[in-house]
């Protein structure tokens, strides 16, 4: 009897430790921690101890489930920067999934072992071990699956209310199963089949629920990306349009100033002091002129602005582009393509210590066989990988960083174009192909 009690406690500790460890890994993979890793580990260990204590004083699954959800919410709220609504949702979802797997495991064990007396599940250590061996591996796989999919949890209130309905239904189902089907009583073959069917249905229900949530999260992220891209393009477009208006005024002023200077020269004649003063004024006016001529006014402004940034940060930039054949490209897309492309190149160069390695950007654009080809390459030191067609860098905010590239691709696709990215050890290249009308 003593050996059975010891085995029961050990089995309880192992199962509970697995549940809380997976929960800790799961939330750590999808949320930003605000406390130390040590505090998180202490919180998980404390929850394991409390859960083991609760399991040994109460076999009521509903009480246990409520306690787990509450403790999960507390751990989540204390250790992570996550809205309370999302803390509740994730804790509720995880523990419903964990208990659902236990139910599925129980149904399988009942069916395989042809159990007639359900009370043995509360006393037989081997049946409980079988349940743990069947259910816990699936739970352990949950964390790496979520991390691999990189599910970004961001739930709107409307989505939360809709997703809560199937979760509440799962909780009600758990209450029904453990309160009626699996209570201490003798069952027949029909009950066994019913138990297995319901348990399996719970398993697939939880898997389907996870799939639905993952899909909603993905669609929400795509929607957010689209909104950010749209806002960024509009902001860039407005900025460069205002710059264009200013440049038009400067051009008119430049023309007027030249006329005024000619008049002053005619009035003063060959006065050396006046001529020297006029030469100084001319030089200052020339310095204000845009020396880049790509054939597109908006593009000239963008290139001049980025060139000034490069000059201030010891970045060598070479620009060779004739954009005169691309007047069919909307000015908003011109802003999106070139400003984002050069911003990324400048940012990569800024990470280079210019004393050890050269900072360099080369931008070229030309027509090749009815295609306008843009080639931008820059030196770099950071590692860049491609996972599932998405670029992953060493930046902390990879979501915001990726918006620039998504914005470029979105604009290029408006003209049936294509974006190709090549990353070597020291050079990053972006090639853009746009069919000419």
TrEMBL record:
Enumerate the SUPFAM superfamilies for this protein.
ATPase domain of HSP90 chaperone/DNA topoisomerase II/histidine kinase
Give the keywords, sorted.
Answer: ATP-binding, Membrane, Nucleotide-binding, Transmembrane, Transmembrane helix
Pfam family, any one: HATPase_c_5
Q: Which GO terms describe its molecular function?
A: ATP binding; identical protein binding
- All residue ranges annotated as the Sensor histidine kinase NatK-like C-terminal domain in the record: 331-435
| Database matches in InterPro entries | HATPase_C_sf, NatK-like_C
Q: Where are the transmembrane segments?
A: 6-27, 39-57, 63-80, 92-113, 160-181, 193-214
Q: Which Gene3D superfamilies match?
A: Histidine kinase-like ATPase, C-terminal domain (3.30.565.10)
Q: What is this protein called?
A: ATP-binding protein
The species is: Peptacetobacter hominis
């Amino acid at each position: 009897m003593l050996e059975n009690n010891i085995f029961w406690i050990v089995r309880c500790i192992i199962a509970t430790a697995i549940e809380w460890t997976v929960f800790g890994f799961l939330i750590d993979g999808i949320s930003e921690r605000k406390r130390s890793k040590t505090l998180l580990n202490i919180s998980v260990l404390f929850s394991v101890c409390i859960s083991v204590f609760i399991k040994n004083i109460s076999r009521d699954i509903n009480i246990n489930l409520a306690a787990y959800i509450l403790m999960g919410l507390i751990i989540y709220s204390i250790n992570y920067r996550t809205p309370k609504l999302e803390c509740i949702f994730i804790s509720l979802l995880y523990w419903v999934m964990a208990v659902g797997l236990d139910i599925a495991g129980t149904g399988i064990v009942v069916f395989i072992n042809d159990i007639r007396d359900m009370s043995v599940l509360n006393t037989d250590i081997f049946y409980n071990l079988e349940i743990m061996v069947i259910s816990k591996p699936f739970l352990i796989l949950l964390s790496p699956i979520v991390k691999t999919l990189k599910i970004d949890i961001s739930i709107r209130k409307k989505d939360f209310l809709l997703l809560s309905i199937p979760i509440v239904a799962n909780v009600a189902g758990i209450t029904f199963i453990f309160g009626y089907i699996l209570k201490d009583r003798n069952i027949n073959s029909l009950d066994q089949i019913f138990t297995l069917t319901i348990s399996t249905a719970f398993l697939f229900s939880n898997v389907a629920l996870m799939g639905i949530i993952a899909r909603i999260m993905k669609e929400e992220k795509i929607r957010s990306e689209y909104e950010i891209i749209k806002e960024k393009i509009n902001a860039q477009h407005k900025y460069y349009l205002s710059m264009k208006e200013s440049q038009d005024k400067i051009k008119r002023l430049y023309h007027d100033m030249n006329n005024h200077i000619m008049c002053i020269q005619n009035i003063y004649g060959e006065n050396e002091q006046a001529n020297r003063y006029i030469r100084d004024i001319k030089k200052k006016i020339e310095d204000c002129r845009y020396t880049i001529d790509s054939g597109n006014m908006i593009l000239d402004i963008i290139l001049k602005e980025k060139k000034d940034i490069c000059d201030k940060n010891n970045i060598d930039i070479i620009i060779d582009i004739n954009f005169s054949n691309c007047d069919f490209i909307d000015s908003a897309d011109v802003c999106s393509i070139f400003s984002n492309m050069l911003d990324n190149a400048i940012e990569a160069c800024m990470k280079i210590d210019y004393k050890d390695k050269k900072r360099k950007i080369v931008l070229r654009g030309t027509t090749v066989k009815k295609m306008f080809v843009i080639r931008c390459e820059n030196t770099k030191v950071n590692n860049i990988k491609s996972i599932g067609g998405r670029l992953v860098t060493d930046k902390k905010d990879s979501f915001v960083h990726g918006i620039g590239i998504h914005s470029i691709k979105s604009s290029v696709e408006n003209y049936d174009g294509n974006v190709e990215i090549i990353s070597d050890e020291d050079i990053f290249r972006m090639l853009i192909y746009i069919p000419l009308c």
